Amino acid sequence: MNFEAKDKLERKLKGYWKSKQKLESLHRALEKLDKDIAVLRGILAEKDELIPSPSQISFTPGGGRGSSEFTTVERSAMLYESTQEMLKTKIEQLRQNRLRKQMRIMETEYTIDIFEYIIANHLDEEEVKVFEQCYLYNRNNIQVGKALNCDESTIRRKREKILTVFYELLKIRA
């Protein structure tokens, strides 16, 4: 494994932990979008109570006395239609944003699942601890050795094995 591939792989391993945090944030954002959509749908459903439709207002033709102003019915109809369209547009924007968030959640979960499969099935308990120390806490080999009560050279070997396992299974290339 060359230096560039190793560097790229180490960035991905550090990114795994960030992905787990990002996933929580995406789920919270998705919940907020769901609430916002529900509120707007509720408003849209209740709009007839909030804004009378043109059929609910008595009609008097013309603006009266040659006026070019809109009648109450015409103003009501315009307000009714513009509010309805604005709410529908906003709901559609939120739905599209929700769909994008769902896709990001699926992609992130997929990445996390791959890493967790490799961790669970290809690393021993000590290697998992080294993995966490190096890539979650961003510690160097000496710091990890002190934390795990191991020699720095042992940590270096375990770290190289971890990188090799991920390199082979993820097929990371520079």
Structural class of the helix and strand makeup?
mainly alpha
Strand runs, count: 0
Low-confidence stretches: none
- Biggest sheet statistics: none
How large a portion of the residues is in β-strands, by DSSP E? under 5%
- What best-fitting shape do the alpha-carbon axes yield? rod-shaped
Number of domains: 1
- Provide the succession of SSEs: HHHHH
The portion of residues assigned to helices is: over 70%
Q: Average pLDDT value? A: 86
> What's the gyration radius in Å?
29 Å
> For the terminal residues, how far apart are their CA atoms?
9 Å
Number of helices: 5
3D architecture notes:
This protein is mainly α and 174 residues long. It has one domain. It is built from 5 helices and no strands. The longest helix is centred in the middle third of the chain and has 51 residues, at 72-122. The protein is rod-shaped. The N and C termini lie close together (9 Å).
